[in-house]
């Protein structure tokens, strides 16, 4: 982290984010809920937000939705009928096969490329998401790499140890870049969810 003259802190990658920092007019509608529990079904029965009815589907981005908990969450949310799932995955083909393997209906999901081992890929993902014109109602930072028995470390494109770079730094950047979009959401169940493992403290 780099200290800014103003007294704030600036992460090393923020210098590279200037192009992405252009923002649409922000109308903050309240505080984004953050939770650190495992994926839980949001309050899908809630049909109103601050007295307003929301008639559209929510849009949720799930990182690492090609297997495990991410895929299970994608399936549960898509099948509930109230969410369109953006599967943010590094391997498009694997993600497509995974979606088909659990019977996701085409209209309920979109696969977008995101390799968390590269901060540039995070920025590109966010740029593509903004270009899609979709709102963002929930972000699930789920993807992770865990190699406790590896004899030698591996590194991200930016030179960080892989699990630190993928599990933490890339998600930190992703959440930061998308936070204003989440704040603008008028969807009842908007939230930022970060998954973690107690074993992560040993990596
Ligand atoms: N399973 C458990 O018992 C457990 C317990 C506690 C916490 N958690 C947490 O729950 C979350 C999911 O765990 P899981 O067991 O479901 O994991 P998993 O099945 O191993 O899935 C991990 C996902 O992360 C993706 N991923 C890995 N590196 C990536 C990268 N560089 N860029 C983009 N995506 C990447 C994988 O993509 P590929 O398919 O391309 O490899 C995969 O989709 C993790 O945050 C984990 O710490 C899990």
UniProtKB/TrEMBL annotation:
Alphabetized InterPro entries for the sequence: NAD(P)-bd_dom_sf, Prochl_reduct, SDR_fam
Oxidoreductase is among the record's keywords: yes
Keyword field contains Oxidoreductase: yes
Alphabetized GO MF terms: protochlorophyllide reductase activity
GO biological process: chlorophyll biosynthetic process; photosynthesis
Alphabetical UniProt keywords: Chlorophyll biosynthesis, NADP, Oxidoreductase, Photosynthesis
Protein name from the UniProt record: protochlorophyllide reductase
Species: Canna indica
């Amino acid at each position: 982290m780099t200290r800014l003259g103003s007294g704030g802190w600036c992460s090393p990658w923020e210098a590279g984010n200037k192009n992405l920092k252009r923002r649409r007019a922000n109308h903050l509608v309240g505080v984004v809920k953050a939770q650190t529990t495992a994926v839980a079904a949001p309050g899908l029965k809630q049909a109103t937000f601050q007295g307003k009815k929301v008639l559209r589907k929510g849009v949720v981005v799930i990182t690492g939705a090609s297997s495990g908990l991410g895929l299970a969450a994608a399936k549960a949310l898509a099948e509930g009928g109230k969410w369109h799932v953006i599967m943010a995955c590094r391997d498009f083909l694997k993600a497509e096969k995974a979606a088909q393997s659990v019977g996701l209906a085409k209209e309920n999901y979109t696969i977008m490329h995101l390799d968390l081992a590269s901060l540039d890929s995070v920025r590109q993902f966010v740029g593509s998401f903004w270009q899609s014109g979709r709102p963002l109602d929930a972000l699930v930072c789920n993807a992770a790499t865990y190699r406790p028995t590896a004899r030698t470390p591996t590194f991200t494109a930016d030179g960080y140890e892989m699990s630190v770079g993928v599990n933490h730094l890339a998600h930190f950047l992703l959440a930061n870049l998308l936070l204003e979009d989440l704040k603008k959401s008028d969807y009842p169940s908007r939230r930022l969810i970060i998954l973690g493992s107690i074993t992560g403290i040993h990596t």
